[in-house]
User: Fold these one by one.
Assistant:
Number 1:
Amino acid sequence: MGKLIIEARINEYAMRDVNPQVPWTPAEIAADAAACREAGASIAHFHARQDDGRPAHDAETYAEGIRRIKAASDILTHPTLGFVTLDAPPETRVGHVVEMAANPETRPDFAPMDTGSTNIDRYLRDEKRFHTTDLIYRNSTGTLQHFAREIGQVGVKHYLVSWNIGFTRQALALMETGAVPTPAFMLFVLTDGEVLAGHPGTPEGLRAHLDMLPPADGSLHWAACNFGGDLLGVTPMIIERGGHVSIGLGDYHYDEIGRPSNAELVARVADMARAAGREVATPDDVREMLAMG
Ligand code: ZN
């Protein structure tokens, strides 16, 4: 079986109330990403944050994050497209990626495309109520075609994100039409927390994704994360089925195993991979596997 790619999802919009080791500032993000690289990660996914943890959406903070990550290690960079710019036009949502790609010092390696639309209101199960009732993550086909074009034109690698089987079908169609080149990379977002849009973070939830994939022909590499929940439970299955692992404090605090750092989580996955006979991929391996030039 091929080498295992470990991506560190280092912060998303996680706060520090449970696990204080979530990096926020560009300096913290860069130090954390370098530690993850040391532990076996080859990709760092991050969201720009302000000093107090609030989201940052300006291109400068993203650029500063990438500049510092690149200065601290050779880990591949994967900034978000901006979750809370939900209602912004597609040009704005992908704007910082295009801008950063123009400068080699701030050029991201990956840019994400969530290939569908879904409700993302948080459901507070204990209280049997929804926190909000009108949040839609909207990604029209036209928006996705725009993202695909812009990301491709600036030579950044498309990073497909699938929340459920409908997203996967749309992603496969984008590959089939040539909008997204192959070999492609696709993340399955399992959701065990308050967001109900993904499959559960269980073997059954992951298996449903895998059962729908076309026969493996090398044109698609897949990974899984668990937004709002523990990914370690399905990690052996991911490793065994030939997938890749995307894990970090952005998704979950891992309180029950002592609030580890991102690097400690990555090291744990790397150990599991090696024990199962899969080597851990370096950034150069990833470039080669995904034909990133
Ligand atoms: Zn993210």
Number 2:
Amino acid sequence: MNNSFEAVTSLCAQFGAKLYERSFIPAEDGGFAAMVNFGAEDALVSDGGDSAFEGELRFAGGERALVSPLTHETMQALRRRFPFCAPSAVLARERTMGVGDRLGIAGSGHIRAFEPFDATPVLAQQSMRELTLTKRTFEQVLDAASGAVFREGFRRGFGADGDHLKQPDEVEYALSCGYTMITLDCSEHIRNDVAAMGGMQLEALPFPYDDLYKKYNGVSVDIEGAQLCFGGTELKRMLHLYGAAIDFAQSIFERYLKDRPVDFEISIDETETPTTPLQHYFVANELRSRGVIFQSMAPRFCGEFQKGVDYIGSLDQFRAEFAVHAAIARHFGYKISLHSGSDKFSVFPIVGELTRERFHAKTSGTSWLEAMRLVAMTSPALYREIHAFALEHFAEAKRYYHVTTDLTKVPALDTLPDDALPALFDQNDARQLIHITYGYILNASDDLGERFRPSLYELWRTHQETYSNLLARHIGRHLEQLGVPARSERQ
Ligand code: ZN
């Protein structure tokens, strides 16, 4: 057949479908594959001679095309047929950033944000908690990412991160779906209560770490000029704090990751006190000496990394401490991972500079907030309703997050004209209000069923292009502040 772009475009038009230009792939044998839009839905269209896909054969003007709905089976076939649509381990690349897409609609915007920059996205990135709150599965999250990659013709590679996994079966689930990064949340094995204990209280605890104590006591190391010295009570405290977490990470590595081309991230950021450089070095060194290979680690930094707003705390202190963390990561050859990286614009330049542009950063909530900004822009009445609902559920939602939101600073909505609503998303307290209530908003129901979800998704579909543009700008600003060079500068 004639598989030129023009011929396929007009063939699709005869079915009432609009071709996504960048997805079009002509094959040498005259075949083709592309993604099209049928109004409410996208579908994959191919020439029908390709047995890779299943679907419905349609005929027009003496030509035929196979239309495949975007089922999980179609997306699996797509990843096999076009490997650029499958995730891979990407953390060895210098600049990587996770862009969680809780709604399954942000992929195109995320890809467009990365387009001009020399950095690699981890497009499918979701925690178990996010899956539960959004009622999605790892399969769906990855399928949405693969679909966006194909639609946008994005061939530079991307990662898929099973984020903040805490249980072996969660790791197994993410791996079985083809995820190429496992972020192990060790928090349930970190003994937080010892952080505040006095020396005597600490000495009274059972101490199963004699061998480790002997190994580290009196050791001092120099990391790019920073002296790290182990010994005494602080060493014992450290062993109580991280001993079980290290065992846990080792067991997960040996059981699931040892022989797999999968990125492994060690997350120790969900603790009550910031990770000291000494603790960071200890965890990394001990894991390395047990043969555990990992590509990134997320310590908890000083200051506050609250959801959806800029860093809160002293930038000088952050800079001084981050310099040592970055040096430790460099010493062992892994990357620092910055969690809750949404909107941390004031620390980004420091992160980019002190890691010498070898970092991983994670965002997620900020893409949800841009989706809600879009609601405020295009459907003020719906936004007002959701905002009132969020206010009602804020106190409940706050139990799960550490935020210092001051609701009295959020303007009363009846004082605001419609065109002032989008600017709420430039105000920290309003951002956090909408950020931490996302699960409540998505799952709200009344006698008629789901209260907001159907109208929200319809709105997001209608304004997909605007959403992509908002994300390209907003996520692009993250990359820019992190000091990611433009692609053209290096080519
Ligand atoms: Zn984290």
